[in-house]
Amino acid sequence: MDFDFSFEQRLLGESVGRMLAGFPAATDHPFPYPASDVTRAAADLGLFASDDGVPILGAVDAVAAALEIGRALPAAPLTEMLAASLALAGSPAIADVLCAGEPVGVAVTGAVAPDGGRALVPFAHEARLFVLPVAAGGHRTWHVVNRSEVTLDAADLFDVASSAAWVSLSAKPADHSAASVAGRLDDLLALLVLAEMTGAAAYALDLTVGYAKERRQFGRPIGQNQAIKHMAADAAVAVETMKAAVEYAAWCIDTAPEELDEPAGEARLALLSTRSHVGGHARRVAEACVQMHGGIAFTWDYGLHRTLKRIVTRQTTLAAPRASREALADVLMAAADA
Amino acid sequence: MDVSFTAEQEAFRRDLRAWIAKTLPADWAGPRFTGPADEDENARFQTWWERTLYDAGYQGIHWPTAYGGQGLGIVEQLIAAEEFGRASAPEGINTIGKELVGPIVLAVGSEEQKRELIPRLLRLDDIWCQGFSEPEAGSDLAGLRTRAVREGDHWVVNGQKLWTSFARHANKCILLARTDPDAPKHKGLTLFVLDMRTPGITVRPVRQMTDRREFNEVFLDNVRIPAGMHLGGINEGWHAAVGVLGFERATARLYRQARFQAEFSELLRLLAARPEKAGDGWFRQTVGTLAAELRMLRLLNLKTASRIATGKGIGSEASIVKLFWSELHQRITTFALEVLGEDFAAGTPGVARFRYLYLQARAETLYAGTSEIQRSIIAERMLGLPR
Fold first, then answer.
1. Distance in angstroms between the alpha carbons of the first and the last residue of chain B
2. Which site from A310, B21, B259, B343 is most exposed, i.e. has the minimal number of CB atoms within 10 Å?
3. Do the Cβ atoms of B94 and B121 come closer than 8 Å?
4. A245 and B299: CB-CB below 8 Å?
5. The Acyl-CoA dehydrogenase/oxidase C-terminal domain covers which part of the protein (chain A) (predicted)?
6. How far is B314 from chain A (nearest CA, A)?
């Protein structure tokens, strides 16, 4: 029993954090650097590497990295590519591109189909290759699609630290079956996005605690007020449980991924409860952090809105807390009925 | 990262689960969920349960064998807690001894005290109660007024204690009293071992909102404690009492999660029997939310066990666990109101357990440090916000 990151995992998180600290905060278009600067730097750290079709990083390693991505929020699809590199290391159509750190467009919501449909893809304008869910005959499978096969329609994204486009198929891809990719992209994408949200919430709380120690009103630091302390304590409880949740779900996925296929498998239940919990609490933490700061947090330049907006964007797309609670209720009520 | 149990630990769990199934009364966890309603009959039952535990080798699981413990690790303690909780097993009559006195004695007691008190506690030769809180010293425990004055080879104690669970059944009390009235609040306190048969002690049960009488007032009128019957140093009682509590706050209640899980499962059965609610979106969302939160509590427990097992220790994390479990239990028992609806108010078979738990959960955010105290501890000691 050692429910904590290993030395190597902590080291990985630290080096990702250091690498991302080298990029200025992105809040206004055009961003101060192309996404490929970040994705290549991440590739240099081996974040997307695979060896003979097997990803170098496990889910727990990736969570350690995604927590740091959430803290920094770089203008690049790092979390999405991290998930793709774990899920699709065995797909020659994409593994090399990921490995090299070329920006890849991974859909975060929606699905495309030959006769319509669209998917939301972060940093689509900078991507050469896309990984899109294609809906056909009631099924939804992930496909690798070339830039030449899609049409982009810029989205007005709530998240200011990202850009995105609605992607639709411009022509039927030459050979669908060949481009289809197996893997657990849906689950890994959800897991790492939840870790990113957790890292973002933890960052917001750290920033807030630091501010509450310095900012003085009525002749004393605002952090001396019990109203602030108790709000911060509740946020800390949320952050601790969120961290434990993403770490444990990742460990389950590393240890017994086949249990994702069982409706009541441990990995499946761990992921669903993480979606329910992180999906709800990350936003509450960020909102509480705005409240604890006071007016400064409402300004654009202070930057806390980046974190809030990223979390809200994730909650309303990938985290899907409401659907996950319904899925949990399904499993549990079926067991209670039996 | 490794959140697994070893094969030996899994075997320990299997054996214990089988032992509990064959040892607990067959109708346990049904109407008898808290033991007999009669206070004395219940005391006899709870005593029987703890002696049976001791005989089977399930008392003092992570305490040293030198003092009668099993010498196993904190992970085995967690497993045992989960299995007892899963069966909603009786909490026993000596929880104060096991959860509070034992750890304090092991931490600050003399070698002689360890050899004397720990085995007696495990065998249930001693049943303990806790004399800390007072009418004017609740959350502000350091404000306690009970005085112990040295007279020759005795201490003479005068004062009043409140919320003293098990005082009617206990033969020993771990008593916190002021020995130096001139010292600052947190100094000048000493922790004593008090024999409850000493003249001058009056115990008066307090009727609680659950209609049970577990708590007592204890009046101390010129009670004489022999010199030397103190735990830790004279005037160092605050450290002895409170320093150890943080660790215990995190580890003593590990069984709660499995207990709440068992209650929640029962609640889901009651919900499934009410189709108009079982299909309702609000109920299903709440089921999902609470199920996820129960899992979060288990992860916090696993983290706690892991930190202790790997020698990292427990600090203000203990307050996070206490705050989370006590408030989660209120959310679960409040959900029971919604599931049971008018049956909760009017009374049908099966509601008694949830009526009791709903009320009992009101106490849980108050005792062992209120939620507000826990929040302040988290803010000041973990986050470092200014006092």
1. 36
2. B21
3. yes
4. yes
5. 191-311
6. 14
